[in-house]
Amino acid sequence: MDQLQSEIEARTDDLVSLTQDLIRIPTLNPPGLHYRDICSLVGERMGAQGWQVEMVRAEGALGDSFKHPRWNVICRLEGKRPGDCLHFNSHHDVVAVGDGWTFDPFAATLSDGRIYGRGACDMKGGLATSIIAAEAFAATHPDFAGAIEISATADEESGGFGGVAYLAEKGFFDPARVQHVIIPEPLNKDRICLGHRGVWWAEIETKGHIAHGSMPFLGDCAVRHMGAVLDEMEATLFPLLAGKRTAMPVVPEGARQSTLNLNSIHGGEPVQDADYTGLPSPCVPDRCVLTIDRRFLIEEDIAEVKREITAMMERVRARRPDFRYEIRDLFEVMPTMTPEDAPIVQVVQDAVQDILGKSAEYVVSPGTYDQKHIDRIGRLKNCIAYGPGILDLAHQPDEWIGVQDMVDSAKVMALALRRLLG
């Protein structure tokens, strides 16, 4: 074992402690709690070691408010001579806890080589791993070239607009500043994630006419219209999507086809507050809204993806008198995939081979992550996701990260640093 790997082994307890400290800050999104606290923890640690630290609030970005400001931190360590910059980007926000936990979700309990907690694998373990890797590399290679950056950014779980998107707009991922990016998402330590599928979110609204519930024949029920839309989806749209397949190495296998999730549906009278003790009013619902989450493949065109929905709605309209509808775009992200021969891909592939003794598997994520903003806004294509953790554990009760997985991934990251900057 060489000096760099030994240095990381010696920092295992620090890696565990740092991961626990990060998990114990409940950065729940929504609404966006304790963002400044976690950025301060990272910034103070790195600043004490001589890193340049910049705290950036995404003022005016989607989600930013006086009550819940969107804070990000970027830490940079300059080398002794000119060279490339390798940036490790991790999001610091976590999703809601949910039910079914047997561990305290914010206690960061260490048990049998695993650290349990919300955000353990997605992705505070990855953030801690990148910090330890960078610190170990800087300690053993004080004369390195170029620069290292570590960022902890907001709101990836809700689109990243108050985090990486904002920073990319401000030039933090300009190719003149940063040349290589690793996002330590939990894709397993023996996988390199090259990119992700595309996504289109939209609302479909069916329209009706309100009337007294005792005389529904005087109205027009928007919920029944939506029921016809759902029937048409089952009959024609879902079979169509199941037949679309990609050459992208998307994981898991089921995501190699186009998919559609019916995210939410609501029609009729709004849901009342929990303390309301009365009955609903008797009305025919005059609107029903369905929110859809369409994931599409790199082989598909976004315009055709949208035309498929419109064509489906027109088929329903042809069969139903007085059928009226509206489709509203919410947001869209194009698929992206970094080439396998890109410098960061090859460097990490070689490091995985050296540390784990096998070739890394190339994969593509079924859902988007912050690579979309680095690619589209930052115009930086040399970006991958690589980090410790099992993807299937993300957003689950009793989420955990394995200590040995973090140590191994830290060795891979540090070796990538040495090959790019050493």
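The above is record 1. Record 2 follows with the same two-line structure.
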Amino acid sequence: MTSTPVRLGAPPARRVGEDRLAGVREPSVDVGAYFDLDHGLVDRTIFSDTALYRQELRRVFAPSWLFLAHESQFKKPGDFFSTYMGADPVIVTMGKDRRLRAFLNACRHRGMRVCRADEGAAKAFTCSYHGWSYDTSGKLINVPNGEDYPAHFEQDQWGLIEVAQLDSYQGLVFATWNPEAPPLREALGGLTWYLDAMLDRDPEGTEVIGGVHKWVLEGNWKLAAEQFASDWYHVNISHASALMVMSPTGKGPKTEIVQTPGRQYTDPLGHGHGFPTHPKSRFDDRIVHAHTDYEALRERLGDARVEGPMTTGHGTVFPNFSYLPVNGSIRVWHPKGPDKMEVWAWTIVDKSAPDEVKDAQRIYNLRTFGPSGIFEQDDGENWSEVQATAHGFVAGSMTLNYQMGLGLESEDGIHPGTTGRLYSDGAARGFYARWRDLMNTPAWHEKAGGTTGETSGETSCEKDTS
């Protein structure tokens, strides 16, 4: 089998003006008063306050590793994909050297986006305002009327602002603005064991199919992220009608499946993953299920993963990337203010699976967790209804109960790290503990002398994308 390597971007060179973030000062709120996580209590204000939203953009999103795209979206030099890191528009592109890089999608002249397409292929990105043009390595290659600039104007210093670090894990591409962030694998912590139940099933890896589905919901992004980290509790209530439709009899799943045993993993870095352990808790497509060689997967990944995280589970990589292993759904909750989020969702499949199996996975995913999916619509309605009452004076300042499973977490000797019962708020408490700690810690750019990334040198990491 031949392979075409995707090379991941080296640390960017420093450019003019990239130390300006050190001068950005906004008032900060001590969010400690909004939590008593030892007793499972959360102040609802964190979902609606505009000042807190501004603070989380600079202290949660700017310092964290954020999901950008899947390696399979980039097949040849010039391929690009437009996305967001928090509220910042970003271009991910493959250069002539097949290296993936990510840049702020903003012209260094007046700040307009230089790429207004969702995805495609391009040799250069040209701002439609004044015509400044950049190549796929971010270099400024054309300035109209350049002779009218002063002698001290150095064109090579005004390239696109590049992320401080970019890396991938099992085909998932992440980046951060933070030059001081730990390596991606370290930032994923113990969640990698659980992620691999979805990402490492096939020796050839994974790919995304069917494009990106996008929709907007009224609701704070944290409502979705925490649910995917921790909330199996809502399934039998919110999705009762969907479970009835999905069951073979049309009357709903059997009691032992409804009340399935399971575990919930809580990572100290804010990640979470919940999963049933009943052998029939696999609401996957019949074609996909029939194709799956569970014995081979037991050999590859072990019994504990096949019987646990590979079932109908759910997970979140802090802060805003979530996934559903059995559905093959991966998604990002892009924040659009304290009251709105934009959901971007992909279908991920095993690369070596036959085309008919891949297509069955795609269709099944759309029917269940696409924008019109029978489960997805229930979730969206819940989050929007929760947000609808968040601005009332009394309702908006009430204390919320996150006590389920409190004190029941342990190391069970089967699943790595700290786990609790499936029905638990444990991973949600862990999610908010991480959010609280980041919100109360000045980010690298708020420290004296901080920059967006003064780094040098070349590194590369080659990935097989065949």
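The longest strand covers residues 206-218.
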